[in-house]
Automatic annotation (TrEMBL):
The lineage of its organism: Bacteria, Bacillati, Bacillota, Clostridia, Eubacteriales. NCBIfam families: tim. InterPro entries: Aldolase_TIM (IPR013785), TIM_sf (IPR035990), TrioseP_Isoase_bac/euk (IPR022896), Triosephosphate_isomerase (IPR000652), Triosephosphate_isomerase_AS (IPR020861). This is Triosephosphate isomerase. It catalyses: D-glyceraldehyde 3-phosphate = dihydroxyacetone phosphate. Its main location: cytoplasm. Homodimer. It is found in: Cytoplasm. One of its GO terms (cellular component) is cytosol. Keywords: Cytoplasm, Gluconeogenesis, Glycolysis, Isomerase. GO terms for biological process: gluconeogenesis; glyceraldehyde-3-phosphate biosynthetic process; glycerol catabolic process; glycolytic process. Pathway: Carbohydrate biosynthesis; gluconeogenesis; Carbohydrate degradation; glycolysis; D-glyceraldehyde 3-phosphate from glycerone phosphate: step 1/1. Involved in the gluconeogenesis. Catalyzes stereospecifically the conversion of dihydroxyacetone phosphate (DHAP) to D-glyceraldehyde-3-phosphate (G3P).
Length: 248
């Protein structure tokens, strides 16, 4: 059985003081969670959140990582920096990184390999735009994105990563794939992993990342292929996020 994982992607929200308050409110609400609970915060919040989650079941994640250990890469953070700051997870290849900051399938792979080498668990984002779904390219696209991201990893390493399926058309729009659509596409991703890495496909956890919230979390989490969620807006309020964590 794969243990579910619910990860909040705070995006560019919350100052350090706001982050500390949010985590302090969240901790007692998710203390009995039956899943892994992660908050992926802006880098300026790492210190405050790392301190606030001490002694809780909440883990810290970052929203990006560079593939080099150090160098002249202004504004970037290395895997070693994230590790020392207390991060255990890192989101890689989110659609907003791809859309606004030039992320490609190839750089997603470089970042993934750097994260894994440093002992971080990557949350690798894949997904299609609306026009790509309507043209019938969803399955081919997500399989390609997935296998490109994982290139160079062993089956043992792949088994430990997290993949987040985020239909780009459902992010921040209030739209969501149906439970069955999400389950079907996540099944395609799992079979793509199986084609290259065999039984690792049965261990890799695949989240749904398209506007999961308290209203739809229960139905999505009943689907056999869905192992959790990468949560955007609903992760910014402790009560809402806790309801998703409990699949209510």
């Amino acid at each position: 059985m794969r243990k579910p994982i619910i990860a909040g992607n705070w995006k560019m929200n919350k100052t350090p003081s706001e982050a500390r308050q949010l985590v302090q409110e969240l901790a007692p609400l998710v203390a009995d969670a039956q899943c892994d609970v992660v908050v992926c915060t802006p880098a300026v919040d790492f210190a405050a959140v790392s301190e606030a989650i001490r002694g809780t079941n909440i883990k810290l994640g970052a929203q990006n990582v560079h593939w080099k250990e150090s160098g002249a890469y202004t504004g970037e953070l290395s895997a070693a920096m994230l590790k020392e700051a207390g991060c255990e997870y890192v989101v890689i290849g989110h659609s907003e990184r791809r859309q606004y900051f030039g992320e490609t399938d190839e750089t997603v792979n470089l970042r993934t390999r750097a994260a894994v080498a440093a002992g971080l668990t990557p949350i690798i984002c894949v997904g299609e735009k609306r026009e790509q779904r309507e043209a019938g390219y969803t399955d081919t696209l997500v399989a390609y994105q997935t296998l490109t991201a994982l290139t160079g990893l062993t089956a043992e390493q792949v088994a430990k990563v997290v993949i987040a399926y985020e239909p780009v058309w459902a992010i921040g729009t209030g739209l969501t794939a149906t439970d069955e659509q999400a389950n079907e596409t996540i099944g395609v991703i799992r079979e793509a992993v199986r084609s290259a890495y065999g039984d690792a496909a049965d261990e890799v956890r695949i989240q749904y990342g398209g506007s999961m919230n308290p209203k739809n979390a229960h139905g999505l989490m009943l689907q056999p292929q869905i192992d959790g969620g990468l949560i955007g807006g609903a992760s910014l309020k402790a009560e809402d996020f806790s309801k998703v964590v409990h699949f209510e």
